[in-house]
Amino acid sequence: MSTKEKIGKRIREKREEKGWSLSKLADETEALSKSRISNYEHGRRTPGPDEAIALARALKCTPAYILCLDDGNNQAPVNLKYTEQPSVSEPDSSYKIETESDLFELIDIYKKLPPEYRKQVIESAEKIAGAHGLNEFKKSKLESRKKTG
Hints:
The structure is a single chain. By secondary structure, the chain is mainly α. It has helices at 3-17, 22-29, 34-41, 49-59, 63-66, 100-112, 115-131, 134-148. It folds into two domains: 3-66, lambda repressor-like DNA-binding domains (434 Repressor (Amino-terminal Domain)); 93-148. Helix 1 crosses helix 3 and helix 2 (22-29) packs across helix 3 (34-41). It is elongated. The protein starts with a helix and ends with a helix.
């Protein structure tokens, strides 16, 4: 079986697990047409990164799973983890973005906002971060970049 066919099989299996039609999946992605998804499922086309993200978000799995880059547990998106240890104490885990789909949803909402509201979102996030000591984390990361850059 080719990689295109494996990708199509994974998309079809996840869609069928949810009991969705092609039309329903197309509606849930808000970006892909029924015919495009059908082409993916039949191995005639391969989704690119943006399409894989839209599919993964709708199907509640990871883009890596959709694209056959990960054979692990496909039932839930993977947790994001910090790659660097902050110089201040680690923020409370309840404030971390827990899944890739949460992050994608947040980015998607942000992109749909008019520019004047985006600034408000950033200002609000900075206030919340400041209240939980994350501004120190941000400053320490910036300082370490200056030293290495």
